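Practice set, problem 2.
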Amino acid sequence: MPKMKTHQATAKRFRRTKGGKGKLMRMKQGKSHLRRKKSKRARAKFDEMLPVENAGTRKRVERLAPYLNEK
C-alpha cells in the first residue's frame, strides 16, 4: 500500500513531545501580528506550547498528518 501524504499546514502547526507519551502539542493562536500593543507578559505567553485537549482535534490531526514527528 502506498504511503499517505501529510497535510503540510497541519504538520507545521502541531508537534509531538519526545519520550514515551508523545503528546500532541500546539502553539497559541494570535501570535503573528498586533503584538506591539500587548504587554510583555502577554507576548511571552504566545511562545509556550500547549497540549491538545480535544479528542476530536487529536483524531483529525492523526488523520491529516499520520507520520507527524516520526523518526
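Problem 2, part (b): a different protein.
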Amino acid sequence: MPKDLKVVLLLDYYGGLLPDKQRRLVEYYYCDDLSLAEISETEDITRQGARDAIVRAVKKLNGFEETVGFAKKCDKVKRVFENYESDSSDENLKLLKEAIDDM
C-alpha cells in the first residue's frame, strides 16, 4: 500500500470525523510510519484487519474532501496569498478576497 502524503493533510482537516480507532491506525501508518505488522501488534488485530481499516479510513477522508473541499480551498488561498505577497496589485487583492469568500 503506497503512502500518499496527501492523506496526512486530509487527516489534519477531517481526522476528527473518523472513528477513534480508524484515526489512530491512519496516524500510525502515515504519521508515525509504522508498518502494518507493527500496527497489528500494537492494536492486537491482524495485519489484514489493520490494512482494511486504514483503506476504509482513507476512502472516508477522500470522500470528505470531495464533499467539502476544504483542503483544496485552503491550498488555493495559500497560493493566491503568496502571489499577493510578491505583487500587491489590486487584481491580486481581489483574487485573494474571492478565494477567502469561497471558503
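Answer key, part (b): The longest helix spans residues 47-68. The two ends are 32 Å apart (CA to CA).
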